[in-house]
Amino acid sequence: MAAALSTGLGAAAGGSPTTLCEQEQCAVVGDTAYSNLVLGRVRRVESADEVKALFLAARSRGRWASLPDDPARFSKFVRVVVLDTVARTDAGTRPLALRVIMTEPEFRDENLEPGTLVRYAPHGVDHELPPKDQPELLPYWHVTGCVLPMCLATDAACQARFEAGTYERATGRATDWQTERVRSAEAVIDPGSLLPRRTAAEPVPDNESR
């Protein structure tokens, strides 16, 4: 079993999100999926025991009360992916290892090798429910999101086009990774192409994996 997780924000259910960290790898846990866009590189995929530990830590802090009680069931249908990204603070930027949550079937459909540049986003209005042939995912759908490969780990040119960080989904403005609140007055990335605003007009390479 994974080591006990510490909490950075001890908010009660219904308030601000709760931050759960283990060995400087953090998850922001709320009553719904993490709402920000995240651009980052895959560091690792957590083990079933680590996923169970996250579930139990969240439940102990009043989160995910609507989910089935069994942590083994949670670890069967949910995967946690650790992304290397960037946190923006008043003092500047710093590295951040952020844990994002997706369903097991969506994980199997993607190639999330370490070093792959990916985009995490909560399930959108076009995916408000899981596929009809996967009803077992319904209890977990509202706390998970989509992790989409953008650039292969070996494609440095592709990866260099994007700026790691957490962003408001609708506008591309930079956000505080813990509170999910906007930090920048103007957009840092284009929310459509995900490219930095200064390069958003450039064409996307043919070999870019999206």
Descriptive tags:
210 residues; alpha+beta; nine-stranded mixed sheet; two-stranded antiparallel sheet; disordered N terminus
Helical element count?
5
Q: Characterize the overall form.
A: globular
Whole-angstrom Rg = 17 Å
Helicity level:
10-25%
Let me know the number of strands: 11
Q: Which consecutive residue ranges, at least 5 long each, have pLDDT under 50?
A: 1-13, 200-210
Tell me the β content.
Answer: 25-35%
Structural class: alpha+beta
Question: SSE order in H/E notation?
Answer: EEEEHHEEHEHEHEEE
**Main sheet specs:** 9 strands, mixed
- Indicate the mean pLDDT: 86
Overall structural domain count: 1
Q: Report the end-to-end length measured between terminal Cα atoms.
A: 35 Å
Structure description:
There is one protein chain. The chain has five helices and eleven strands. Strands 1, 2, 3, 4, 5, 6, 7, 8 and 9 form a nine-stranded mixed sheet that branches. β1 and β2 form a beta hairpin. Helices cover 16% and strands 34% of the residues. With 210 residues, the chain is of the alpha+beta class. α1 packs across α2. The protein is globular and about 45 Å long. It has one domain.
In brief:
16% of the residues lie in helices and 34% in strands. By secondary structure, it is an alpha+beta fold.
